[in-house]
């Protein structure tokens, strides 16, 4: 069963554009990972909405250990005002 994750990220207003550029780079790398079915992001009001689908928890854990994922987090975390993470369950 796949794992679906939706993340709402509100960066500081002064960092909004730069955050989007960093997120686009992360997406390009993430979609190439084994176990990543979907990685996309959108803008809703003053937030980025990240939508991911992974084949399993092992794939998510491997993604979180990738050097580029760690660098993204370290480069952006000081500029994030709020993050909300939702794990969605399939109805079927």
Task: Provide structural commentary.
- The structure is a single chain.
- The longest helix is centred in the N-terminal third of the chain and has 15 residues, at 16-30.
- α1 (16-30) packs antiparallel against α3 (67-76).
- The chain has helices at residues 16-30, 57-65, 67-76; strands at 3-11, 36-44, 47-54, 80-88.
- Strands 2-3-1-4 form a 4-stranded antiparallel sheet.
- It is of the alpha+beta class and 92 residues long.
- The protein has 3 helices and 4 strands.
Gist?
This protein has 92 residues and is of the alpha+beta class. It has helices at residues 16-30, 57-65, 67-76, and strands spanning 3-11, 36-44, 47-54, 80-88.
> Which stretches are low in confidence, meaning pLDDT under 50 for 5 or more residues running?
none
Distance between the termini: 10 Å
Task: Let me know the largest β-sheet.
Answer: 4 strands, antiparallel
Our count of helices gives 3
**How many runs of DSSP E, i.e. beta strands?**
4
User: Helix coverage percent of residues?
Assistant: 25-40%
Structural class: alpha+beta
Kindly report the average pLDDT value.
96
Helices and strands, in order, run as EHEEHHE
**Can you tell me the overall shape?**
globular
């Amino acid at each position: 069963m796949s794992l679906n994750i939706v993340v709402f990220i509100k960066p500081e207003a002064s960092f909004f554009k730069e955050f989007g550029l960093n997120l686009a780079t992360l997406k390009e790398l993430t979609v190439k990972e084994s176990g990543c079915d979907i990685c996309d992001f959108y803008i809703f009001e003053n937030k980025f909405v990240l939508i991911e689908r992974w084949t399993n928890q092992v794939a998510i854990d491997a993604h979180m250990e990738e050097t580029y994922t760690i660098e993204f987090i370290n480069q952006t975390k000081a500029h994030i005002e709020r993050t909300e993470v939702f794990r969605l369950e399939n109805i079927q």
